[in-house]
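Format notes (please read before filing issues)

Several people have asked whether sequences and structure tokens are stored in separate files. They are not. Every record keeps both together, in the order shown below: the sequence lines, then the token lines. Line labels are part of the format and must not be stripped during preprocessing.
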Amino acid sequence: MKLLNTIILTYTILLILSTPNFLSLKAQENGTGMATMPVQSSEGGFCKSMVETNGYECEDHNVTTKDGYILNVARIPMGRCRDCRTRGNKSPVLLQHGVFVDGRSWLLLPPKQSLAFNLADKGYDVWLVNSRGTEYSEGHTSLNFDDPAYWNWSLDELVAYDLPATFQYVYDQTGQKLHFVGHSLGTLMVMAAMSRDQLVNMLESVALLSPVAYMGHTTSLLSRVIADNFIAETLDSLGFYKFDMRNVIIIEILKVICRIPSVDCTTLLFTPYTGQNCCMKPSIMDIFLDHEPQPAAMKIVIHMCQLIRGGNTTMFDYNDSGTNIKHYGQPTPPAYNMIGIPKDLPIFLSHGGADALSDVDDVKLLLDSLQGHDPDKIVVQFIERFAHADYVMSGNAKEHVYDPFIAFLSRLH
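Then the structure lines:
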């Protein structure tokens, strides 16, 4: 069994690496722009693909960042049960996905098990973000999706542009502070923003699922190999600017492989990256492969590798003191200081004992930085068997994570 999985994994990686769509060459620099406007539900949009088919009302909105990226943000304003089908003055909840996926990662589970749909059914105004470069957020005011300059971004741009634009838009639309839910990179985005005293005035609470604040102890085999061998940096130096694992032929091959009874595809595709997820059903793999993975900038992969090797959470390091001075006014990149997170902000934090990306030792560092937090304003949950993908793809996440989180929210009102 292990030999079969190893052979298939090796073969799959070789196929992906030999696919032209996997990497894209760069040739030019960046540009900027700005605008913001709402958009109604449209044919083929995010709402049509994942939300309305499940019987929920949905609105597609466009939010344009100060550097010109046009982000799709989907709104589920009400649930589908008889008592939930009212708009009214509902509390907004903003869900932010991690890297290599998009907002559909919150909708892969059936409606009764999905966090987004459960929140809507419980009376919340739900907003799903699709980060720059993902399928529904490919637009830009001046750059084409395939322009190398389009992909010139790291964590810093997500923190400086995407989150503020999205927060402000939802705040303006609802007139209320936001409850924020992040998974994986989504947690790092909001913690980095809060550490620099951004967005706090628009936040009602924060939920950190599989929090990634520090990465020096990560046991993710794939992440370690890429980081320790400077693979992303090497590819960047060769002119590759985009990390894109999605290809129609590869996806169809993986679907066929995943239907082989003796192949545990959840282990095959996720364990080398996320750790051994305990509770994902094999049937979810077809749904996942229909929509994910999503591309990301090579620069953000390099940034994550820097955090893994360095152990500290800093802005992007250009590995040249002169360039760093040009960007930051100092020879080394500034740190995102987690101690700066407001001590009276309600926080729900959940992490897993089998999570290779959000390692227990790294989460301990985060918790150490939160020691001065108001004990009445923080809930810390540890689930021994959970790994990284369990938080968005396991059927029992509702029982173990989502229900306690919704109870946490209800206590705030």
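For reference, the curators noted about this record: Residues 2-411 form a domain with the Rossmann fold fold (CATH 3.40.50.1820). The longest strand covers residues 69-76.
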